[in-house]
What we know:
It is built from four helices and five strands; from the N terminus they run E-H-E-H-E-H-E-E-H.
Amino acid sequence: MVVVEFFASYCEPCRHSLPALQRLAERERGLQIIAIGEDEARDKSAAMAVEFGLTMPVVHDVGNLLAAGFRVDGLPTTFVVDRQGVVRWIGGADPSGRELARVVKAVRRGG
C-alpha cells in the first residue's frame, strides 16, 4: 500500500496535514508514503520537509506533471493506493490525520 500526498508551502492546511502524515508514518511501520511538493522552487518543498521532520521521500513535481496526472485540483490532496495499484481513497485537508489513519487500517484489512 502507498500513500501519496500532494502539498505546497503556500498551502496553510498542508502545514497541519504534513505533521499528521509524519505521525502516521511513525505509527504504521512498513507503510510507503511519498510526499509530492507542488511549489515552483524545489527549495520550498525541501524546507517544509526539514521543518516538519519528514522521513518519507519528498519529490519536487517539476511543472506539476504528477499533479496533472493524478488530476489534483486542490491542496493538500492525499491518495491511498492498495497493493494491486487501485486508488482506494482520495482525501483533502485532514488536519488530525484521523480519517487517513482509519482508511489505511481498513485497506490493510482488505476493507
